[in-house]
Specification:
It is a single chain. The two termini are 42 Å apart. It is built from 20 helices and 9 strands. The chain folds into 3 domains: 132 residues, no CATH class; 126 residues, no CATH class; 121 residues, no CATH class. It has a 9-stranded mixed beta sheet, sandwiched between helices. The chain is globular. β4 and β5 form a beta hairpin. The chain is α/β, with parallel strands linked by helices. About 6% of the residues have low confidence. α11 crosses α14 and α12 packs across α14. It comes from Aspergillus tamarii. InterPro entries: HET, HetReg/Transcr_Mod. This is Heterokaryon incompatibility protein-domain-containing protein. It holds the Pfam family HET.
Amino acid sequence: MSTSFSQLYTSRLSGEGEFRLLTVQPEIGEDQGTHCILHTVNIKEHPSYICLSYTWGPPTAEAADKGITSRTTHYIKCNGNTILVTKNLYDFLQRVRRDRELCSQKFWVDSICINQEDQIERASQVSSMASIYRSAEMVIAWLGEKDIYTEDAFSLIRTMGSLSDDDLKQVVARNVGAEDIVDFVGPLFSDWAWNSMKQLWRRNYFKRAWIIQEVALAKRILVICGEYILDWANIARVSRILTLTPWKRVSNVKTHDRKARVDSTHTLPLYLNSNRKMVSAGKGCDLLPILIKARRFQCSDPRDKVYALLGLLGDHAKDKMRLQPVYKGRSTADVYFSTAIQILEDTNDLLLLAHAEGQDFQNIEDLPSGFLTGHAQRAWALGLPGTRDSLLRQAYPGLLELMNRINP
């Protein structure tokens, strides 16, 4: 980050409901760069704002190949200070400043609205993130700039998502074959269309650990990729269709292009939406099951493998000091130990150790083998013959260390 950040944040947020919002100035006449205004509000005042959900790094693997990273490389002006932001965030801000409706909105953008260099403020704001997302008018899921697949992917999702429940019931009830379904939807089943949709699921946005919480807590989600826009409900519906009907099987039978075959990435929105339904019903999630399912998701700070999920636990997690976000002076190993102890106390169950990942997956200093760290992202590996027994043997050091910490 630029050294001008020290001038941007004149005081630390209090933690009593305070957070910052960003306003982007519209583009006027000659291009004078991107100008923003950052100001402090209190959630008790019920401000109107939009949360931005996005990836700090490259939006796609192709973008990464072109040298786009999570480094801050693009200049903007904020409260008169020149600061650096990532390429993906810069692209979104350019979209906002050229859109009259979006320019009238206030945004919560974590990399700017939180002083990332102040670890105490960062921890406090992460603790408040659930209420920030829950109180937002809307969440924008920014997938990044468009590519050659975006238009057809959005078109296919929009068309499939608009099919009536009666039409879908016919497909499931009749268990129709490939030719029947192809006749039913016509040109939708082209190799290019299916590959385009698969490439959309593979965007790095859907790999972020933080989106589990961000999607679950949002009142409404608008998915934007370049100039293309979809409601999250369409994304979730198509994910459900592909998972629960024969369509995925049919598409894979019909296509002659291996690239177009739908893989398991299409299940991610359905999983995210299941948490969303649970939260909207007023039910908190249990920590261990979501930790297990979240192992496929990624974050730049391994401590966030835990912190990114805390907003799903409900109010009962607020009083558990072991789970409170702390960045300053707290190692990743300590976060994982504290989380494991809390899970064992809450559940009185050793299921945690049944999901041990073993030393082959572990590279965290001071952490014995036998912890669920999320580095073994392919959960199916635990189902291989002999794998679980081997990993359970490797879990013994972790179990002994946990016992020592619980009963010193």
